[in-house]
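Hi Y.,

Following your request, here is the sequence exactly as I used it, all 471 residues.
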Amino acid sequence: MHYIAFLMDRGMAPYRDVIDVNMPGTYGTEWAVMHVFGPNAMAWRIWDIFLACAATGAMMVIAKPVDRLAGLFGGGLFFLLHGRDGIAELGQRDLLMATALLWSTALLIRSARKRSFLCLALGGLLAGFATTVKPTSVLFWLAMISFIAIQDNGPSKVRWKFFVIGSGAMLVAPLTAALALYRIHALAAFWNILTGLIPYHNAMFRLPATYFASHLIPSTLLPLSLTMLTIICLRPRRGMEFVSRDEALILIGVVCGAVSFWVQRKAFSYHRYPMNAFLILLVSLVLFKAIRDRNATTTVRGLAMAGVALGAFVLAPQCLVRVHELSSSPNDFSNLLQRDLLRLGGLDGKVQCIDFTSGCTTTLYRMRLVPATGFLYDCYAYGPDTNAVVREYRESFWRELTRRPPAVMVVSNQSCSASETDGFKKLERWPALADMIRDQYVLEKEVIPPDAVRWVRQVAVPHRYRIYLRR
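Below is the corresponding structure, written out as tokens. Let me know if you'd prefer a different format.
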């Protein structure tokens, strides 16, 4: 996404010139970050820390009636949980989505308490922005404003006004994004990708529902979650009211986060960030409320203190240790490829990546090189010939390749199918491309990065790449 923001400055428009499945709000944010903090790696570290601080601030605002320390505790734990996922997850869209939704929730709670339609509208604007980053954000906002409207004891006219203002404000950002795309003549291309390539992308690499059922909550948060449930069952309550209105609202965020995680069906750890944020906030509220509750039993207060101690002195250090285990290598895929391309020289607009996410486009971004075509990902072209989306993708990709054949092709062995043992054989599923490379290009070298990948806790075998030069 950093690369696409760079290409925007070079006159290329997302969807129209660069084929990608991310949403418009993502590109706008990435472009803004690059122009505020700079285009280097440090900028994304600053942005990541900014998002973490913003998320913590939202949690502290929500937790104010209980204890601001609850928000600080929750925000710190959320940031550490994010940090242990590694440098590859810096500034993830789901982190931005979670932060925006936390603030929209804080504003929604304030609007309900103060009868402030201004706070409601601001919350809707933020939720709408989150929707332009990840469409599942709409679930959070509609569910939350519906809950508040139903809980309101005022006249039905006021409740309808509340719902209409909240829903209308949410539409502002998506409509603004649509207008911006229309002005750069990319709206039709976006609609084509939204209704074709994005559903196809979502169907790729999907894991079974049983996997999500067993991996819904991170194992790190299970002890705290069980402690929270025990406290909720044991603490004093009025009748059958197990949770307060604010806690119920946060619980809705947890449920919507779980739905968002399930809908994406990729099981990437960062897809859980919105759910994790609301779950950690709910845990923090319950724990600190129990500690401050003078009517709480010794057992409940003891459980709450134990939960806080567990988070502060066990889970937080574990996350820090995990961060220390992560490392990059000077001989990784991108660094080695960068050296090879520098040696060849003069490649702006002449390199085509036949890769998905191994690091070819990352290398082009580091070198500030425009690609030969706007097609950055190859896996969409290897589906069945009977699929209309695959056929259209191939045809468009092929037109670009043959219109101005690239001087260099970089082919990675990243597999696009679970059944492939040799990723280079993926070309056999697109015979025209395989023939083009065989007939018009010569293999210059094949590179096997020597060091294992340690960007996540599991050590992974690095992807290889081949460089082909046009005859």
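The mean pLDDT is 92.

Thanks again,
Q.
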